[in-house]
Design goal:
The protein is an all-alpha fold. The protein has one domain: 434 Repressor (Amino-terminal Domain), CATH 1.10.260. Helices cover 69% and strands 0% of the residues.
Protein backbone atom coordinates (compact mmCIF):
# COMPACT_ATOMS: atom_id res chain seq x y z
CA UNK A 1 0.00 0.00 0.00
CA UNK A 2 2.21 2.77 -1.32
CA UNK A 3 -0.46 5.36 -0.65
CA UNK A 4 -0.67 4.42 3.03
CA UNK A 5 3.04 5.09 3.50
CA UNK A 6 2.91 8.38 1.60
CA UNK A 7 -0.16 9.62 3.48
CA UNK A 8 1.26 8.48 6.82
CA UNK A 9 4.49 10.38 6.25
CA UNK A 10 2.68 13.45 4.91
CA UNK A 11 0.51 13.55 8.04
CA UNK A 12 3.59 13.27 10.31
CA UNK A 13 2.97 9.78 11.65
CA UNK A 14 5.67 7.21 12.24
CA UNK A 15 4.77 3.57 11.81
CA UNK A 16 4.85 3.31 15.59
CA UNK A 17 2.52 6.27 16.19
CA UNK A 18 0.03 5.06 13.58
CA UNK A 19 0.10 1.58 15.08
CA UNK A 20 -0.55 3.04 18.54
CA UNK A 21 -3.54 5.05 17.25
CA UNK A 22 -4.97 1.89 15.67
CA UNK A 23 -4.20 -0.40 18.62
CA UNK A 24 -2.02 -2.71 16.55
CA UNK A 25 1.64 -3.72 16.40
CA UNK A 26 4.08 -1.60 14.39
CA UNK A 27 5.13 -4.68 12.41
CA UNK A 28 1.58 -4.88 11.04
CA UNK A 29 1.90 -1.39 9.56
CA UNK A 30 5.26 -2.43 8.07
CA UNK A 31 3.64 -5.47 6.43
CA UNK A 32 0.91 -3.30 4.93
CA UNK A 33 3.40 -0.83 3.53
CA UNK A 34 5.63 -3.53 2.02
CA UNK A 35 2.67 -5.37 0.52
CA UNK A 36 3.24 -8.47 2.62
CA UNK A 37 -0.34 -8.19 3.88
CA UNK A 38 -3.35 -5.91 3.63
CA UNK A 39 -5.45 -4.34 6.39
CA UNK A 40 -8.74 -6.03 7.17
CA UNK A 41 -11.60 -4.31 5.36
CA UNK A 42 -13.29 -3.30 8.60
CA UNK A 43 -10.11 -1.46 9.69
CA UNK A 44 -9.84 0.71 6.57
CA UNK A 45 -12.32 3.38 7.76
CA UNK A 46 -10.45 3.71 11.07
CA UNK A 47 -7.10 4.07 9.27
CA UNK A 48 -8.62 6.70 6.98
CA UNK A 49 -10.04 8.60 9.95
CA UNK A 50 -6.72 8.61 11.83
CA UNK A 51 -4.87 9.77 8.70
CA UNK A 52 -7.61 12.26 7.74
CA UNK A 53 -8.10 10.81 4.27
CA UNK A 54 -10.58 8.61 2.45
CA UNK A 55 -10.47 4.84 2.08
CA UNK A 56 -10.26 5.43 -1.67
CA UNK A 57 -7.10 7.48 -1.19
CA UNK A 58 -5.55 4.65 0.83
CA UNK A 59 -6.28 2.14 -1.92
CA UNK A 60 -5.61 4.41 -4.89
CA UNK A 61 -2.04 3.34 -5.69
CA UNK A 62 -2.98 -0.33 -5.65
CA UNK A 63 -5.77 0.25 -8.15
CA UNK A 64 -3.43 2.00 -10.57
CA UNK A 65 -0.99 -0.94 -10.42
CA UNK A 66 -3.76 -3.49 -11.02
CA UNK A 67 -5.06 -1.63 -14.07
CA UNK A 68 -1.62 -1.66 -15.80
Amino acid sequence: MDALRAIRIHRGFTQESLANELGIDRSTVTKWETGESMPRAELLPKIAKVLNCTVDELLNSNRRKESN
